[in-house]
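RECORD TYPE: protein structure
NAME: Beta-phosphoglucomutase
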Amino acid sequence: NKKGFIFDLDGVIVDTAQYHYLAWKELADSLGISFSEVENEQLKGVSRIRSLEKILEMGNMTLAQDEFDRLITNKNADYLSYVEGMTREEILADVPRVLRFLSENGQRLALGSASKNARTILGKVGLMDQFDTIVDGTQVSKAKPDPEVFIRAAKELHVPAERCIVFEDALAGIQAANNAGMLSIGIGDPTVLREAAFVFSDFTKISNEFLNELIQA
Ligand code: BG6
Ligand code: MG
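PREDICTED:
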């Protein structure tokens, strides 16, 4: 009677959206495309390649494939220079409490992230050993809102999809969880995440009693 609890990484466990934003902003500036935190919101949960396509759409621009690839490589190097400085201080509030409570209560835990840098980031913040399995952007071909990443995580946990609960900060991620037939819990703004079954502003608002109800349900 175990449940599977699947956590997105960026924006759920750590606030890397700020670093993605800085790196994309530098790229957009170099192309003369205006890009603010409002536009950045549309890139949350979206794959690296799809993100650059969206930025180019914002600027009504197209690029030759080799230039596209060069910019993607630069952006990731730039992003990783921010990641390099990360420490466990950057784990978002009450994430360690929630992970501990769930594993102490015998639940199965997975990471389900679109990021190809997920393992690097978990290593930097010291959370590599907290999950029974990790599924990241190097292991899936279809981006959220496609449910592939969460379906694969559930398989690796040996828990059926209908017994899985997903924590997500991006609309594409909530849709992916819903498409997988899982219970979706939004972390962030309820107006953005309105398709989620529940929304909390952050993990400090998620009590152990609520987690217990999820386990028992
Ligand atoms: C998601 C982020 O988790 O991962 C996106 O929300 C990001 O902003 C995507 O583009 C891919 O990440 P990466 O690290 O492989 O470029
Ligand atoms: Mg996210």
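COMMENT: The mean pLDDT is 96.
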